[in-house]
Design a protein that fits this description.
The structure is a single chain. This protein has helices at about 5-15, 40-55, 60-85, 125-150, 155-170, 180-195, 210, and strands at about 20, 30, 95-100, 100, 105, 110, 220, 260. With about 260 residues, the protein is α+β, with helices and mostly antiparallel strands. It has a single domain (about 5-215), classed as Transferase(Phosphotransferase), domain 1, CATH 1.10.510. It has a four-stranded mixed sheet. Strands 4-5 form a two-stranded antiparallel sheet. Strand 4 (about 100) and strand 5 (about 105) form a beta hairpin. Helix 1 (about 5-15) packs antiparallel against helix 3 (about 60-85), helix 2 (about 40-55) crosses helix 4 (about 125-150) and helix 3 (about 60-85) runs parallel beside helix 5. It is globular, with a radius of gyration of 18 Å. The relative contact order is 0.13.
Length: about 260
């Protein structure tokens, strides 16, 4: 049976979740995702995007790029998995980074070469979900992070935590918007599985990175709402105009926090 996305579903993925249907006119910052696997090409690309971030080092450029790359890969893929029970191929060889700006902010999108859609068979959603998770993480992000960590000498833990914080935010906020009670149950089940139960091999690593970086939210003086304090620093402060301008969840901040569970 031929499985397709509806025009309405495609519209949501394109407008709200960083999926691109066509190549961007801006080729300077666009590339096949496999560029990340080649050390020389990867470093050359980081030098180019470094002009956007204006960071002080390749380590910072790699981390800040990884934030954007992880978001564009997981936003449309996991939304489609949990909201539509459909998936596409997000393996690194099927993905292209397409450069887009929104005002002064660089917000790249992902374009796919092959658009074959899969969906779970009757009674087989858990197995299908594992295939989707493996495709997104083990077949893409894990490969990208191993290569980027080596080429830019950035801690792979930083790159994985950059990914984890967006998975948390998307499922706790964005993905729930407009969902009815039944759909919210499925969304929560997928989220719980991703961050606690999914085996490490689906992520291409030895320990589930979404579980590794999950922690209780706390109330701090740095934020007006409860937040998870990161275990690693993403180096945003190295691209800030102000010295020591750390993120509200940065572990380099000095503040007292009270856990809320």
């Amino acid at each position: 049976m031929l499985i397709e996305y509806t025009p309405e579903e495609i519209d949501v993925l394109v407008k709200d979740h960083r999926l691109a249907l066509e190549p961007s006119a801006d080729r300077r910052y666009s590339m096949p995702a496999t560029v990340l696997l080649d050390q020389d090409k990867s470093l050359a690309y980081l030098d180019k995007v470094g002009s956007i971030f204006e960071a002080a080092s390749n380590v910072a450029n790699a981390s800040l790029f990884a934030k954007r790359y992880s978001f564009l890969i997981i936003a449309s893929s996991l939304y489609a998995m949990s909201r539509y029970d459909k998936s596409l191929d997000y393996s690194i060889g099927n993905c292209h980074v397409e450069s887009h700006h929104q005002g002064q902010t660089w917000l790249p999108k992902v374009r796919l070469t092959d658009w074959q859609v899969t969906a779970p068979g009757e009674g087989g959603r858990n197995e299908w979900r594992d295939q989707v998770i493996r495709n997104v993480f083990a077949d893409n992000l894990s490969k990208a992070w191993r290569a980027l960590s080596k080429s830019a000498s950035v801690s792979i833990s930083v790159l994985w935590e950059n990914t984890a914080i967006y998975v948390y935010w998307l499922y706790e906020n964005k993905f729930m918007e407009g969902a009815d009670a039944e759909l919210k149950v499925r969304l929560q089940a997928d989220y719980d599985y991703l961050r606690s139960e999914a085996p490490a091999h689906l992520f291409g690593v030895t320990k589930n990175p979404l579980a590794k970086f999950d922690s209780p939210k706390v109330v701090t003086c740095a934020s007006d709402h409860p937040i998870r304090i990161r275990k690693t620093c993403c180096y945003y402060y190295l691209a800030s105009d102000e010295s020591n301008d750390f993120c509200s969840s940065c572990p380099k901040r000095h503040y007292e926090a009270v856990s809320i569970g």
